[in-house]
Amino acid sequence: MATRGTADAADRQSRAVTRGNGLAAIMRSARDIFAERGYHGASIRDIAKGAGLSLSVLYYYHAGKQELLHALLEDALDDCWRGCETALAAAADDPAARLSAFVQATVEYRVRRQVDSLLALRELRNLEPERLERFVERRDALPKLLREIIDDGVARGVFATPHPDEAQRAILAMCNAIAQWYQPAGDLSVSDLVERYVHLALTVVQHRPPARKPRAKSR
Amino acid sequence: MATRGTADAADRQSRAVTRGNGLAAIMRSARDIFAERGYHGASIRDIAKGAGLSLSVLYYYHAGKQELLHALLEDALDDCWRGCETALAAAADDPAARLSAFVQATVEYRVRRQVDSLLALRELRNLEPERLERFVERRDALPKLLREIIDDGVARGVFATPHPDEAQRAILAMCNAIAQWYQPAGDLSVSDLVERYVHLALTVVQHRPPARKPRAKSR
Amino acid sequence: MATRGTADAADRQSRAVTRGNGLAAIMRSARDIFAERGYHGASIRDIAKGAGLSLSVLYYYHAGKQELLHALLEDALDDCWRGCETALAAAADDPAARLSAFVQATVEYRVRRQVDSLLALRELRNLEPERLERFVERRDALPKLLREIIDDGVARGVFATPHPDEAQRAILAMCNAIAQWYQPAGDLSVSDLVERYVHLALTVVQHRPPARKPRAKSR
Amino acid sequence: MATRGTADAADRQSRAVTRGNGLAAIMRSARDIFAERGYHGASIRDIAKGAGLSLSVLYYYHAGKQELLHALLEDALDDCWRGCETALAAAADDPAARLSAFVQATVEYRVRRQVDSLLALRELRNLEPERLERFVERRDALPKLLREIIDDGVARGVFATPHPDEAQRAILAMCNAIAQWYQPAGDLSVSDLVERYVHLALTVVQHRPPARKPRAKSR
DNA sequence: TATGAATGAGCCTTCATTCAT
DNA sequence: TATGAATGAAGGCTCATTCAT
User: Fold this and answer.
1) What are the pLDDT digits (tens) for C34-80?
2) pTM
3) Does residue D181 belong to the interface with chain C, where contact is any CB pair within 8 Å?
4) Class for domain D15-62, per CATH?
5) Closest nucleotide to A46: CA versus each C1'
6) Are C193 and C111 in contact (CB under 8 A)?
7) What is the pLDDT of residues B16-43, one digit of tens each?
8) Is there a contact between C38 and D38 (Cβ–Cβ < 8 Å)?
9) What are the two backbone dihedrals, phi and then psi, of residue D159, each rounded to the nearest 5 degrees?
10) Which CATH class name applies to A14-62?
11) Which residue is closest, via its CA, to the C1' of F7?
12) Across the interface, do B169 and A176 touch by the CB < 8 Å criterion?
């Protein structure tokens, strides 16, 4: 017959967690703590404490630690895709424009979801095999998409890179890395950041703007 | 009455670990298991088992799990630096040549120490604060070195990039990423890999080979 | 963002539990699950789920898990006694007839309440001390009653057993065991089962039918 | 970096557990505590405490709680079989003698291993399915053996029971029950107990000693 | 009547580490 | 060098129970 015990309210100082808002608080805390210590280094006890809730609520909302991670990663990947698709839908049908749109979306995502996006890079391997497989499949469509854009540019003679494969990898690698160092409070604004990375990407694929549309006579 | 106490020698079949080679076996096992599961996900029990040794030997050679990781990372970083220094020592005093040497050394290191180099990227954060600080200091000299090379190139007018900082980051990011995907058994030889990444790096810094030494009219 | 919070009504498909029948559903579920997994192995969550109700309703009807068990056991014991008393009330005042009536009632109870009767045997010890004491007192009156019947038979010279105590224990033990193996759907009908156990019991007490009622004069 | 903590020696008063004798102490404690509270009601913490050892040693010797139970049950069943086989090997080839030997062995086992034998009856269901199956198979050979003895007696006309199946069940049930009530310190000696149960069993099968070997006048 | 959200205690297990040999 | 036995701490998870609605 369990008694109530001494729940020292001091432990839950930041208890902005009003009844019913448990889930959001947990997700937030999980994100931060997973990011800080890694999946195995993070204890669900600490996650709960970070959320200002008891250990057990976590299991009310999620089946366990693993599922918690999964939920975070899926959410982040969803957001990433949404950004890309929106940007590409708005872009002109021209390789440079599409590449720029892709890079812009990716950079903005890395900044907007700095923490989660790092999680997705680092903690992927801690997903259970089955979950991992499904996740990776969805994620791998991104490099494929980028590759198509590059190939298209090469085919149309706008991108001169002799190594489209390396170019694709390089562009993603440098964009992904942003989440590791960018400091929103710093000097570099997001729009400047985007501009620079778009430039960098176009450089990497060796973008050669086509001769001006030969209007009359280019002389 | 089934027991587990007596470690059946059968479990250590792969005991190529002839007496006296304990240390090497442990390092190898630790490297693989840390890489596979991450620092917190790896148990020293499994590391010992992987080395074909008993748990306790590990403590004969190392003070603990933490020190084991440290030893691995230091060793990897040493190797990385050795490679860079050797390459740069042999390179001509010319930004493009120096950048090429740097990239070549880095790429080769990522391939030569594929596993350890990944460890150094991923498990860094699991070093104890004091160890971490010393390590990072040493590691951060690498980007600084690269930055100097780039700045020099820009100053001399050989590199046209308007964003040397981004260039530096991009070059390191793409080189680092190699360890994540390169397959030594695949089609791409190391020398080809190096060649492509050197090209990529020169592209990123917007290398402009200086006009042939303007023999006659310099005007 | 997968959650678990909202109990999806689909989970309660078998909701034959039309509003208002909660109590019966809970008792049924509790009986089955306690029987299947034992008191400590059964979770009230599963009991509630088995009843097609939410966890909390359980507490509307019962003070807790312990009381739930108690209610089940008391109910079963009541039934057992009712059967015995009815049977004995209808039996002739003759040891063999009374023993037969007792055995018949007991066997029929073990079949009629197969599950609950097993519960009463196995989960008794999980009652809280005070409850346990009261329960055992009531239950122990059964062997005592049986013992009286046997002693009476021995006194009257109808039962020849030299070990009335062992006989009593043997008879109860074998009747109790019925609940462990009897399959209502099988070949053996309840009336046959009763007949055999009555025979067995009479054998155990070494029943010797008295010399025919000395009609005229046996001389 | 874990420190030693305050191991209050007081907690391990009965520490007759000298280094190296851990296994035996654990088995003993496990037996008692499983018997007292049932598999699910017993915590391995309490088992360890009962053994005067730390929680973790348990896992040095056994894979877990489940395996601990399994080890106990197997050991008990082994003992039971050994007893039966020895007894039957020494018995004459005559149904009554064999039945007596079987009952004697069974009764003695129930007394000798009073606790474990109860465990085997009650906690069986808590074995994992695979383990359970193997165990039950071995255990079920016992009733079969008893049944063969009875059938043989019936065939030879020495046992008159019309219900050999019920007889077999009754004999085992009453013998099994012994472990529930017998008190070694009480009035009834083991040899008396055996004698009574042999008598009871012979009664149950309705043993009819064959007519004295018709020496001279068979009339 | 009935529910969803939340809690504290406790459980089984694993882990890094130590110590005597 | 190397090992088996043992330990305290912590980890993930389940559980009976409560409370506000």
Assistant:
1) 999 999 999 999 999 999 999 999 999 999 999 999 999 999 999 99
2) 0.86
3) yes
4) mainly alpha
5) F11
6) yes
7) 455 567 889 999 999 999 999 999 999 9
8) yes
9) -110, 130
10) mainly alpha
11) D54
12) no
